[in-house]
Amino acid sequence: MKKLTCHCGGVEAEVKLPEQGFEKLIRCNCSICKRKGFIMSFVGPEDLKIVKGQDLLKLYQFHTNTAKHFFCSNCGIHTHANPRSNPKIYMVNVACIEGVNPLDLENVLKNDGENHPLDQKK
């Protein structure tokens, strides 16, 4: 288990990652992710457990209100989300995971969230 925290430490979670490390790293270009600029990795529903600060977490939703974006109400750091492509799993902000420097990460894939299949472009 790895420790995930927001900036102020008010929100803390345990994240279970595969033994070989991150399976996939993604940077998304949807309207919220490109503003947050964070790199994410997906984990299963049983692989993220909030152990401290549940009361500090705030939920932000927009557009289809399917995805759930969580952030610390004290420091504003986005720690994790449930993506609308599969709301049962989590995307974790890898920069919040203890010992990870996002500037050192390689092979970060780009996700085309601007043209999400669940959107109907007119």
Task: List the keywords.
122 residues, 10 strands, three-stranded antiparallel sheet
Question: How would you sum up this structure, described in words?
Answer:
With 122 residues, this protein is mostly beta strands. The chain has one domain (2-113): Metal Binding Protein, Guanine Nucleotide Exchange Factor, Chain A, CATH 2.170.150.70. It has one helix spanning 33-36; strands at residues 2-5, 12-15, 25-28, 40-43, 48-52, 57-60, 68-72, 78-82, 90-93, 108-111. It has a five-stranded antiparallel beta sheet, with no helix packed on it. The radius of gyration is 14 Å and the shape is globular. The model has no long low-confidence stretch (mean pLDDT 91).
Give the gist of this structure.
The chain is mainly β and 122 residues long. Helix content is 3%, strand content 35%.
In CATH terms, what is the fold-level topology? Metal Binding Protein, Guanine Nucleotide Exchange Factor, Chain A
Query: Strand order of the main beta sheet, please?
Result: 4-9-8-7-6
Mean pLDDT: 91
Strand residue percentage:
35-45%
**Given the structure, what is the number of helices?**
1
Molecular shape: globular
Give the terminus-to-terminus CA distance: 44 Å
Order of helices and strands: EEEHEEEEEEE
**Total number of strands:** 10
Q: Report the radius of gyration as a whole number of Å.
A: 14 Å
Low-confidence stretches: none
Helix content: under 10%
The biggest sheet, with number of strands, parallel, antiparallel or mixed sense and barrel status, is: 5 strands, antiparallel
What's the CATH first level?
A: Mainly Beta
Q: Number of folding domains?
A: 1
Structural class category: mainly beta
CATH architecture: Beta Complex
